[in-house]
Write a structure and sequence with these properties.
about 300 residues; alpha/beta; 2 domains
């Protein structure tokens, strides 16, 4: 027996214990992902290899990953990717880590569309591109991915090149609609919505996300309100908008949308039963104002 070899199961158990001691939630699952990543196998394959002896050469990179995970670096950053809507997206410090709530939003939007295919789709605050790319692949829509961060757009472009090469997807650096032209059948957005003062209280993993992707302003709804105010001129006549927001923001955001004239407002809960998404149709188009023919006298009372 090689004295520096250890059974895989022992390594798994000791690594999980280390992560648990460091305060990592779901320590065992995290350790399984890291070990599978180092070994280049599927996580479930580990269960067939428990008795296998691993040499020290296999353990050195694992120890470094364990150290970084124990210091709060997100698992997704260490793995370099994340599963989202049956696609594997590159994930790193340049964009918000895709989360299950946003994945569920893709499912909700597809059901909401009821089989109709939007011709043009806009994803505002795209980050890694997970929301817009997933919907583009599902619907075939011509898609524009928008973000204020050039770094985030670089990450989105990387994911487009890997997952949607040849699809009609373009990226635009823009502060919301500032540099966006045209109208869209569907606008989706997962914008920053954390109140600024609460960011310091987030978990150490979430605080590794880009500050631009977290900071929603002093109240947290400021950027979403700007989106709602500016979106109507970019929505087709029967266009739709879907927004992800924080757990306690639904009343304020719904009231704002109603005040702006959005139609058929619907609040949808996430899988935990929390009000998380606003779905709405575009406000009615303003009535056309008839102008008197040039040179004609305008009657006065």
């Amino acid at each position: 027996m090689n004295p520096v070899s250890k059974p895989l199961l022992d390594i798994l158990n000791s690594g999980a214990a280390y992560l648990d001691k460091k305060g990592v939630e779901e320590a065992r699952l995290n350790m399984e992902h890291l070990l599978a990543h180092v070994l280049g196998c599927r996580r479930l394959d580990l269960y067939l290899r428990f008795a296998e002896l691993l040499p020290e050469t296999e353990l050195a990179p694992l120890r470094e990953l364990l150290r970084r995970r124990g210091e709060g670096e997100p698992l997704q950053h260490l793995l370099g990717n994340v599963d989202f809507c049956d696609h594997v997206f590159i994930c790193d410090h340049r964009g918000l880590i895709p989360r299950p709530e946003t994945e569920y939003l893709v499912e909700i939007v597809q059901k909401w569309l009821a089989g109709s295919k939007p011709a043009r789709l806009l994803d505002v605050g795209t980050g890694s591109g997970c929301l817009g790319i997933s919907l583009a692949l599902a619907t075939g829509a011509s898609t524009v991915l928008v973000d204020i961060s050039e770094e985030a757009l670089d990450l989105a472009r990387l994911n487009v090149s890997r997952l949607a090469r040849g699809a009609a997807i373009q990226t635009v650096r823009s502060d919301l609609f500032e540099k966006v032209t045209g109208t869209f059948d569907l606008i989706v957005a997962n914008l920053p919505y954390i109140p600024r003062a609460e960011i310091a209280m987030l978990s150490r993993e979430v605080r590794r996300d880009p500050p631009l992707a977290l900071d929603g302003g002093p109240v947290g709804t400021e950027i979403i309100f700007r989106l709602l105010e500016d979106a109507p001129v970019h929505l087709a006549l029967e266009g739709r908008i879907a927004i992800e927001h924080a757990h306690d923001q639904s009343p304020a955001i719904t009231q704002k949308a109603a005040m702006l004239g959005y139609r058929d407002l619907e609040v949808v809960c996430d899988l935990a039963g929390v009000e998380r998404f606003l779905l709405a149709k575009a406000p009615p188009a303003p009535p056309l104002v008839e102008q008197a023919p040039q040179g004609a006298e305008v009657p006065v009372s």
